Amino acid sequence: MEGLVKSCDQAMEENNYNEPTQELPFCFIRGSDPRAATCRGKLQSKRCKLNQEINKELRLRAGAENLYKATTNRKLRDTVALELSFVNSNLQLLKEQLAELNSSMEIYQSESHNGVMPMIPLGLKETKEIDFMEAFSDFILEHYSEEPSTYVDAIADITDTRQACKTPSRDALGTALLFRYYNLLYYVERRFIPPDRNIGIFFEWYDSLTGVPSCQRTISFEKACTLFNLGAIYTQIGTRHDRTTADGLNASVDSFLRAAGIFRHIYDTFTNAPSMDLKPQVLDVLVSLMLSQARECLFAKFQLQTEILCEPESMDHSRIIIKLAVLMRRMA
């Protein structure tokens, strides 16, 4: 099984298969237009609104629980208890809506997916905007004793890149954008975020599965969330390919293996996950899911090749399954 998983580092090295990635250091890559009326864009916009509503209800519940613990007035406690029941009901409803949203697979499938088993994509993690300008400018002046105005454009580029990463396109440009921001974080961590000092930047991300927000000031959390979205984009790309052709199936296998490698990389390198979707148990399931979908596409490719070589009446599916099992054992 390990042979099937491409590591995140390998994916980064191999991600130069298209022109946008080769030009990555020299051009700014924009995200997709969030106002575009695409089905996927509408779905992500709805996810964003649900996350905000869940966050609002969680804050209301936290305040009500604190008031319930603090007061000794019986009438007030009864009123707060009633309010808590309403808040919990609203939360349950919102989480059910988010779960239904997460199960919406049809809009991610290829246009020619009729008669083909649908693949399971992942939705993106939502995040709140961050402006690096003030924090980085203060740090440059204090730590490096240089004029911050010299680096205004560079800092703005980091902020704009992060903003664009909120709406990556579902193609090679989208993955190149996320790779670029991840690489920027590598240098940002070493130059602006010392481990022994808080520079006042907090990274807040919403759980892609539950919608619950998590906030940390560690750059490792930002990197893990960026990688999660990179893996999610690969699952959407793999789902989008035309799986009625051998080339499309090969592309789907590659995308799902890249996603599996990224989730495995997060599993191996990121600890103390504050959100459900970054916990080791969930990441382990996601790795297994992506590998299973890659195997399914590989089987479909063998089946397609056999249909081309043989008459449908004489086709022996059991031989295909045996060949696939032998191949998987060799790759494990």
From TrEMBL:
One of its GO terms (biological process) is negative regulation of stress fiber assembly. InterPro entries: BRO1_dom (IPR004328), BRO1_sf (IPR038499), HR1_rho-bd (IPR011072), HR1_rpt_sf (IPR036274), RHPN1_2 (IPR047138). The keyword Coiled coil applies. Residues 84-111 form a coiled coil. This is Uncharacterized protein, isoform D. SMART domains: BRO1, Hr1. Residues 118-332 form the BRO1 domain. PANTHER family: LD12055P, RHOPHILIN. The keyword Coiled coil applies.
